[in-house]
């Protein structure tokens, strides 16, 4: 099908505005450009309301890391499920502010505690720094969930794009290294295979240009994050890891996303490994749609369905 009309209008506006590739300049310039598209362009009227927001310090791989805790509006006497949220941005860009609206939306719709983690970025801190930060933060949340008002039995890890990659890797590390036990993983258009260079994922070619995230951007992100020879390490490419025994997963992909096929492949591989999987592939949408709900009814519906899928997994865990 065609790109959703409201999403296409956004793409047309960005093209007319002269928005170039994120990979055209330095990491600092790319970070500034991404903040213009997310933080500075945000309409305050569209920011989801939550009960409270609190800045935290959590464990990282090389010392404490900033994090942000989102609490939903009051309601109910039970401890809340907890989501460790890892932002996207190709391991190079993105921060707590660029994904503030997404974290708020998850908090509100899941009625859960959401902790967004500010992990270290490449190229200043290359692989596996981000992995170690996210794993340490997840363990910190497991140890402190009850104190924060959370239910440690319903601890999940999730993220979008590069954050989805990190969430998948954290789930594998938790399984292999004595915990914590995760109830679910939420993988929103995740990067799952940095090793590919043989055309095994047609979406990398079909959607290489014109849909916000470009293949040139992905190549730049990968080169910034991993050194030559590290691309096939399962901590960089979770699709190449052992998938048996992982927690239930929600895997979300989009039709016009360069990462579509490797996300679809990860969902299939999880299912073949005996993992419970809810796979939502949203036709007509592009990479980044999870932050586009205020601009597109189709994106709004996709975000709602994604949150419901994770809620359902948590319900099973509680039962």
Structure in words:
This protein is of the alpha/beta class. The protein is built from nine helices and eight strands. It has one domain (5-318): Alpha/Beta hydrolase fold, catalytic domain (Rossmann fold, 3-Layer(aba) Sandwich). 38% of the residues lie in helices and 19% in strands. The longest helix has 22 residues, at 297-318.
Summarize the helix and strand pattern as letters. HHEEEHEHEHEHHEHEH
Structural class comes to alpha/beta
What helical percentage do the residues reach?
25-40%
The major β-sheet equals: 8 strands, mixed
The number of domains: 1
**Mean pLDDT over the full residue set:** 95
What is the name of the CATH class? Alpha Beta
């Amino acid at each position: 099908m065609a790109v959703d009309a409201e999403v296409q209008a956004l793409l047309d506006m960005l093209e007319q505005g002269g928005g170039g590739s994120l990979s055209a300049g330095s990491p600092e310039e790319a970070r500034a450009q991404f903040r213009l598209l997310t933080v500075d362009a945000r309409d305050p009227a569209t920011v989801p309301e939550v009960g409270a927001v609190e800045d935290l310090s959590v464990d990282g791989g090389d010392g404490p890391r900033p994090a942000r805790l989102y609490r939903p509006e009051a309601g109910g006497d039970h401890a809340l499920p907890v989501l460790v949220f890892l932002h996207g941005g190709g391991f190079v860009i993105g921060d707590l502010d660029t994904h503030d609206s997404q974290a708020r939306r998850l908090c509100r719709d899941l009625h859960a505690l959401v902790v967004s983690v500010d992990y270290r970025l490449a190229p200043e801190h290359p692989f596996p720094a981000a992995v170690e930060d996210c794993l340490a933060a997840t363990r910190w949340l497991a140890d402190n969930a009850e104190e924060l008002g959370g239910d440690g039995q319903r601890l999940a890890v999730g993220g979008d794009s590069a954050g989805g990659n990190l969430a998948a890797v954290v789930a594998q590390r938790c399984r292999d290294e004595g915990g914590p036990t995760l109830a679910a993983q939420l993988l929103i258009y995740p990067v799952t295979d940095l090793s590919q260079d043989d055309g095994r994922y047609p979406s990398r070619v079909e959607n290489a240009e014109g849909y916000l995230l470009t293949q040139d951007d992905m190549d730049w992100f990968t080169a910034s994050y991993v050194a030559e020879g590290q691309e096939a390490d399962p901590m960089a490419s979770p699709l190449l890891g052992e998938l048996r025994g992982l927690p239930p997963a929600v895997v979300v992909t989009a039709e016009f996303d360069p990462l579509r096929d490797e996300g679809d492949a990860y969902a299939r591989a999880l299912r073949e490994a005996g993992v419970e999987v809810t796979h939502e592939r949203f036709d007509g949408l592009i990479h980044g749609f999870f932050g586009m709900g205020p601009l597109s009814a189709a994106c709004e519906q996709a975000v709602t369905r994604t949150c419901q899928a994770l809620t359902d997994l948590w319900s099973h865990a509680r039962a």
